[in-house]
Automatic annotation (TrEMBL):
Membrane topology label: Multi-pass membrane protein
Superkingdom: Bacteria
Primary localisation category: membrane
Keyword line: Membrane, Transmembrane, Transmembrane helix
Name the record gives this protein: Putative membrane protein YhhN
One cellular component (GO) term of this entry: membrane
InterPro entries: TMEM86B-like
Residue stretches spanning the membrane: 5-24, 30-47, 56-89, 101-121, 133-152, 172-196
Length: 225
């Protein structure tokens, strides 16, 4: 299969799942849900430069997130699979980190956002009597926030946008499930989710996801020469 064809297959299968596959039978729904992720994993495997630590960790993260897709019908089990996936994403992004004070400072708005949304979720869980979910959800919010920050620290644009979309997708999911119903929540969750995973996978393509300093240095070198 040609690499250029895979993104179109991901798009087609994602649209098919989001807008056309009925909710029942549940097994069929789950089957079609994970097909885009299987294609994304294959895409990441094909475009990766080498079998280095960064690509191996990211591929494992994609695999655990795919498990989370199928297991989310048992919420805590699926949440745990996603949490493990984010830990592998974090480890992968850390292998290519490039420190800058600007990127490091992004920990502040990310932390503030996480604190606010976690607080609202805890209130909703307490009022609905689902207190057993408080610790798992707080742990998940912390882990995905760290993952987002390490994606920013990696300097990889695709990883940054992908991780940001992942945060948005999970925020919509959590708010819709525990706080208040949102219009078109299901569609918004999956659209942002599939885009997030594709961009995270795409970050393995070195020529398309170089860090900011590398691009800047190349521009300076060109202007001098």
């Amino acid at each position: 299969m040609k690499v250029k064809v895979i993104p179109y297959l991901v798009l087609f299968m994602a649209i098919l799942y989001i807008f056309f596959i009925p909710a029942e039978p549940q097994g069929v729904k789950i089957f079609f849900k994970i097909i885009p992720m299987l294609l994304i994993i294959y895409f990441a495997f094909v475009i990766k430069q080498t079998d280095n630590k960064q690509s191996i960790l990211l591929l494992i993260g994609l695999f655990f997130c795919m498990l989370g897709d199928g297991l989310l019908i048992w919420f805590v089990v699926g949440l745990t699979a996603f949490l493990i996936g984010h830990l592998f994403y974090t480890a992968s992004f850390l292998t290519s980190r490039h420190f800058s004070w600007l990127r490091a400072s992004m920990a502040l708005p990310i932390g503030l956002y996480s604190y606010i949304i976690a607080g609202e979720l805890v209130k909703a869980l307490q009022s609905s009597g689902q207190t057993s979910l408080i610790i798992p959800i707080i742990a998940y919010v912390c882990v995905i926030s760290i993952m987002f920050w390490t994606a920013i620290m990696s300097g990889k644009i695709a990883a940054m946008f992908g991780s940001g979309l992942f945060v948005i997708s999970d925020s919509i999911l959590a708010w819709n499930k525990f706080v208040a119903s949102l219009p078109f929540a299901g569609e918004l969750i999956m659209i942002t989710y599939y885009n997030a995973q594709f961009l995270i996978a795409y970050s393995l393509k070195k020529s398309e996801s170089t860090d900011y300093e590398t691009n800047k240095n190349e521009q300076i070198s060109s202007s001098i020469s």
